[in-house]
# Entry
Amino acid sequence: MLNSEIVLRDAYRLLCVFLAEQPLYDLTSESEKVWGGAKTSKEQLFLMRCEFGNDEVTHGLINLAICNRTNMEWKKKQHERDWPEKDCGLLTKNLKSPNDVVSLTFREACNKIVHADEVVATYVKDGKTRAFHGEMEPMGPEIWLLGQYGQNEWTAKLNVLQFLKATYDNFDQSKI
# Structure
């Protein structure tokens, strides 16, 4: 069995990455919101975010997905308990049928995180969620996962906050 305290602490750390985004951008002057190219920011906290933010999110998601799946199987085997039935976003199973969108269940979210060929951070601007392409905006709590299963290319829009809530429920010892 996994140590639930360690896993939940990892979930908390990932939550903190997302919650720090807006304050970091609010702290940083417009002239310092640059990364790469000829000019680089001198704002140390902004630089750390640019250097490590995306990797921390990807690493945290993969780690939690593996821990969650392991715990789901253990709970099922040891206690005949099912995993949380939370929805964590939206799934398009086949991009050739883009209107065929279903809820992304917690278990399926774990699978998609582990098997994604690409993990895309997003930001929200003017009420629309968009993929990062070098923009200097705070990362939003939705991550896009892209991959392939058999002949079908799929995409998932993962609500990270819902995924973290389901992770908490999956490791809540009072529910065993």
Summary: The chain has four helices and six strands. Residues 44-79 form the longest helix (36 residues).
